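Lab notebook, page 48
Experiment: co-folding of the full assembly
Goal: obtain a model of how the components sit together before planning crosslinking
Operator: M.T.
Materials (sequences as entered):
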Amino acid sequence: VQLVESGGGLIQPGGSLRLSCAASGVSSSNYAMSWVRQAPGKGLEWVSGISWSSGTTYYADSVKGRFIISRDNSKNTLYLQMKSLRAEDTAIYFCAKHNAVGPRAGMDVWGQGTTVTVSS
Amino acid sequence: DIQMTQSPSSLSASVGDRVTITCRASQRISTYLNWYQQKPGKAPQLLIYDESNLQFGVPSRFSGSGSETDFTLTISGLQPEDFATYYCQQSFSSPYNFGQGTKLEI
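Observation: model returned without errors.
Model output:
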């Protein structure tokens, strides 16, 4: 099972970016997925999650209203659309697979991360 | 929101030691508590899920216990590869917050 993130980069404050996470080796459609970020030198911050069916989405207060999580199960791909980006959104963004259909379970598979830098 | 508080924030130990890291939730979370290990430059790795269940492939020297709000991760017989940062995370309700981390150093 492998998760590979892409889409990170340098973006100006106020800009938008879409991250992708491609799953291989297992059908991620049977599991909930989340995005977790880590600012430079800081701890882990859970950002957003989505149930296996895409019926329910969840967000941290820090990104609510600015980020949208979605998935395309036919492509085995998870997305994070980010808008109104701020300097404090600068971080490595990891996608992770939960070990259940909903997010009330540990995250047992992680990608290697993609770096987002918000700076002018 | 449920806040997770880990202690200590850093810990010095030696190979062969038994160490305990604690995690406190700001409200009851039943057994919805997970532990992760992260090494520098790497993604986190799930060690323990649902308070006390060892993830497949994780050595048995790792164990977890707890009761509703107070949880512990114990490593019995530290190995050189165990020196890393450890995080607890609650999966009871959104937002699924992590603790601030415990850095385990030699």
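Interpretation: Residues 16 and 66 of chain A are 9 Å apart (CA to CA).
Next step: discuss with group before ordering constructs.
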